[in-house]
Known about the structure:
Number of domains: 4
Helix content: 25-40%
Largest sheet: 8 strands, antiparallel
CATH class of the largest domain: Alpha Beta
Distance between the termini: 95 Å
Shape: flat
Radius of gyration: 31 Å
Amino acid sequence: MTSLSITDISDYLKEQEQKSYLRFITCGSVDDGKSTLIGRLLYDSKLIFEDQLAALEKDSKKQGTQGQDIDFALLVDGLAAEREQGITIDVAYRFFTTDKRKFIVADTPGHEQYTRNMATGASTADLAIIMIDARKGILTQTKRHSFIVSLLGIKHVVLAINKMDLMSFDQEVFKKIGEEYRLFAKGLGFEEIVSIPLSALKGDNILKISENTPWFRGPSLMDHLESVQIDTNEAEKPFRLPVQWVNRPNLDFRGFSGTIASGSIAEGGEIVVLPGAKTAYVNSIISADGNVRNAEFGEAVTICLDRELDISRGDVISKVDSRPEITDQIQAHIIWMHEVEMLPGRPYLIKTNNRTLDGVITDLRHRVNVNSLEHESAKTLALNEVGLVNIKLGQKIVFEAYVENKTLGSFIIIDKFTNATIGCGMIKFGLRRASNVHWQAVDVGKESRAKQKHQSPKLLWFTGLSGSGKSTIANLVEKKLHAMGKHTYLLDGDNIRHGLNKDLGFTDADRVENIRRIGEVAHLMVDAGLIVLTAFISPFRAERRMVREMVGTGEFIEIFVDTPLEVCEQRDVKGLYKKARAGELKNFTGIDSPYEEPEAAEIHVNTVEFSADEAAEIVVNKLGY
């Protein structure tokens, strides 16, 4: 009896291991019934424990939206804020299994504010259930989610037309919505769109075909989820292993650990490590089960090589005859996930392949209109908008196009100050530099130029509100330095806009580009051995930091000309504040455009306490001249 029980258990466990997995998401607009659908799936499949059911019944009476009936949405809307508002905020993951398949489902938010969370849930899914309220039809958020689903490489879509019970299960309503959606999704590249009429609340067409839709020939939602074939050929693709960890527990062992992103590897295989292009042979492969002779896509392994190589986290191991590409410039689609808009020219952190490096979005090629899928001209991206951009990276990365390899083709964008994730991206291709452009070596460098002038080159960066006295003080400082025999040059904000930057306006995007250009010019002048003075509002910390990083350590001196807004308005020498207050001057710093004060300026002068002459003297004294 005992032997038989053990055999039965072993057979059962083996059967469970051999079941295929399907990862899917539910998405769509607010209140389309996504959470209710998942709750109903779990309930009808008898996948809820008795204590969960008892708690659900209790919560339904207290917080539900269905009167005395069970509110299935409460099974997945776990956050208190979600239950109070009746919406999904975060991504809720649930695991369940049937006799035919195992499932991981992500219930993603419908509200536009939380589109970033929806993109997170979709990034690992094989199939998307696009929910549509039969009463409302296709909404903007439906289109936005569908476009993001296509960007993230999902090819299988279930068009779940929900709340059909509220439309008397009208076949024409179902047919019309299905036709409209297919027309919209024509250019999204979906391989399969299966339309199903549902009532998630009542259970129609969830587990079996409902008597309320005699005109519908199936399949039911569960039948389709259990039978849909997802083509996964990752194991047949070229071998890619991004190194996550250099495993060195002692002097006698050195291995390189990570999860295989595609392909397979065997003992004795010849590999190359990129971007360094060093080659070796695989000595051994170690998995969770010990030493193995082969490993393939999805497995976490440690690879040991036949010789010592200098390999770091973020390097990529591939086979010598099928190498990925290497570049420091890419074109990619990005989804912007932050309230602060994306500004070309602003420095960000780009994280890809276990490596984080500096990057700048150099160009916004176009923004995508989620309603029409048309490409629109734009200078910035706002929260939840999608665009095609060019990005310049601080170092070369190993990559493949996202459509070929999700791991090597994806990245996230991080704010350098807050470390918040503010965007995600899918690489289209690498951008090639002009092959005839090289950095020309010169014999006379910055040190020799500065030595000839008997000075240390500096960049004195005056920042403050309009009317604070930046230009006046910078001019006085230059006069004092010139009298001391110093070689200087003053770049003034207004003067520069008459020439180099006359094509720029005063939007946030134009302000960023304004400072980027000035930074490049100032960098060249510092390289010439000069003491460069600049007088620009330069309202954003990110751009001031960008310029600081262009020059050498200790060469950037930030000088905060601190003058309260009300004092600047009282001075208003140019009459600009008066125009801004009257609405005649848009995007004016301090009025309808922000100014971010320096957090740790090298020199801080208050023009309320000191005159311009006194402030200039303070600056010169602090410089040590």
